[in-house]
Structure formats: C-alpha cells, structure tokens
C-alpha cells in the first residue's frame, strides 16, 4: 500500500512527509502490525530529499513508501519556510526504540539486518537486554551483495517478523527494501541508518543540547569527517529552500 490517505502529510518537493507526532506514529504503526499490513517506513532527512531530487529512481522509491517521517530537523524547518508546519521531528533512532517499547507488551517478532558483524551482534545483545519482551528472531550483517540477496530474503521470509530494521545506508537500504518488500513477509520494514552503531556503543549520539540546537549533523561530521562529501547536500538543501520558499510545500515544483 502507498501512504494511507488517513495520514495527514506535508509535501516537501513532492515527497509526502507524515504530519503525525511520535506518539501518533507509534500508534499508527502498532495498528498496522495488528492488521498485518505490509508497510515500508522511510525516516527521511534533507540529504535523502536532495538525493531524490537528483535521482528519479530514488524519488520513485520514496513515493512508493507507505510512511515517510521527518527524521531531519532540516525537513521540519523547510516545512515551516513553506508555510505548512510539521508537528514535530520523528527521528528513526527514537522511533526504533518506541516500537521496541511497544513490542515489550505485545511480544513483537523483530529481525535486525545491517551494519558490520561485530556491530550487529552487539546491537542484537543490547536490544535483547533492553527489551526482553521482544522476540529478536534473527540478525545478520549488511555486508552482502546482490548474489546473496535471495538467501537473505528467504531467511527473513521464513521467520515472518513483525518488524524488520535495515541498516545499510539510505542509498542502499531503501531501494533494497522497495525491491524485496513483497517477498520479505515482514509487516513493518524500516531503514534505520546508523542506529545499530549507536545502540552497540560503537558510536555516540549527539548530546541532547546539541540536538536541541539542531546541530546533530555537525556533531556527526566532527566525529566522522568521512561524511563531509555527503554533508555537502545540507547547504545545497538550505539554499534551495530559501530560494524556493513558498514553492517548497507545493506538490510539484
């Protein structure tokens, strides 16, 4: 299914961002799991918006998703500039934890896919300790190529998880989910980027005060200088939004 008409959205350059709060998002997704409705969730930031604008196939992946939440503070800012404010930022990292909390009492079945072997093992153990009521039915690293896709898809489909968290980088994880979603037999399929690295303890999330100042991107850049080229999309996005202003939230630009 495509993004439900029951979800209020704000278009950012044609991409329909959910205008639900975190609490409302979690409630909507728990209902989805109860109904066993196959759902692709994308937690999108400005870098992904720019990638979609520059790559038609990635834009198609974005628009075929069932739920796109505003992960980046830049997306919330752009909606304000465009005159259609979003209620709040819904980060993928926090949404992952909120869904795990919800799964504590509901006994959700969860599969973890992505990151390096040591990171995924540590994240698996950490999440198991944090949420013992959740059944983590399987996990594996993200270091596999197209030749191994069939085996990975078959393994996940056999387990039929309620939630599949995928951490392979936005340029890989979203197209991969979109390609195999109908064969994965997972109810919710959600890309979580670097969340496993933080959960495992390999990297640290920005302190709360940095997040409040909307400088989480800068904190990550200082910690991971190799992200510099990727981060160049941020000033390009900001300049585009300031230039376009009221056009930002039009369905088509």
Structural description of this entry:
The chain has helices at 22-35, 46-54, 56-64, 73-81, 92-106, 117-130, 149-159, 170-180, 195-200, 208-212, 216-223, 228-231, 233-244; strands at 9-12, 15-18, 39-44, 67-70, 109-114, 135-140, 163-167, 188-191. The mean pLDDT is 89. The protein is an alpha/beta fold and 253 residues long. Strand 7 (163-167), helix 8 and strand 8 form a beta-alpha-beta unit.
Question: TL;DR of this structure?
Answer:
The protein is α/β, with parallel strands linked by helices and 253 residues long.
**End-to-end CA span:** 25 Å
Number of helices: 13
Fraction in beta strands: 15-25%
The class by helix and strand makeup works out as alpha/beta
Overall 3D geometry?
Answer: globular
Mean pLDDT: 89
Helix content: 40-55%
Unreliably modeled segments: none
Largest sheet: 6 strands, parallel
Protein topology:
Layout lengths: L8 E4 L2 E4 L3 H14 L3 E6 L1 H9 L1 H9 L2 E4 L2 H9 L10 H15 L2 E6 L2 H14 L4 E6 L8 H11 L3 E5 L2 H11 L7 E4 L3 H6 L7 H5 L3 H8 L4 H4 L1 H12 L9
Parallel strand pairs: 3-4, 3-8, 5-6, 5-7, 7-8
Antiparallel strand pairs: 1-2
Helix pairs in contact: 1-5, 2-3, 2-13, 3-8
């Amino acid at each position: 299914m495509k993004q439900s008409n029951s979800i209020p959205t704000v278009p950012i350059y044609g991409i329909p961002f959910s205008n639900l709060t975190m609490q409302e998002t979690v409630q909507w997704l728990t209902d989805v799991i109860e109904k066993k409705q196959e759902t692709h969730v994308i937690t999108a930031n400005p870098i992904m918006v720019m990638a979609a604008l520059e790559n038609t196939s990635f834009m198609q992946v974005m628009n075929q998703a069932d739920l796109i939440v505003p992960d980046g503070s830049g997306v919330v800012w752009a909606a304000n500039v465009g005159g259609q404010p979003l209620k709040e930022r819904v980060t993928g990292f926090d949404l992952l934890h909120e869904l795990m909390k919800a799964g504590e009492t509901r006994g959700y079945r969860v599969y973890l896919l992505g990151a390096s072997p040591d990171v995924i093992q540590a994240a698996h153990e950490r999440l198991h300790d944090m949420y013992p009521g959740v059944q983590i039915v399987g996990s594996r690293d993200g270091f596999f190529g197209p030749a191994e896709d069939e085996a990975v898809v078959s393994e996940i489909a056999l387990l039929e998880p309620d939630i599949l968290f995928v951490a392979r980088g936005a340029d890989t994880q979203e197209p991969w989910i979109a390609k195999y979603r109908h064969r994965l037999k997972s109810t919710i399929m959600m890309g979580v980027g670097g969340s496993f690295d933080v959960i495992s303890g390999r990297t640290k999330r920005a302190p709360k005060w940095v997040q409040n100042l909307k400088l989480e991107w800068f904190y990550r850049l200082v910690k991971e200088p190799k992200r510099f080229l990727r981060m160049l999309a941020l000033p390009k996005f900001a300049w585009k939004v300031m230039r376009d202003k009221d056009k930002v939230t039009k369905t088509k630009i």
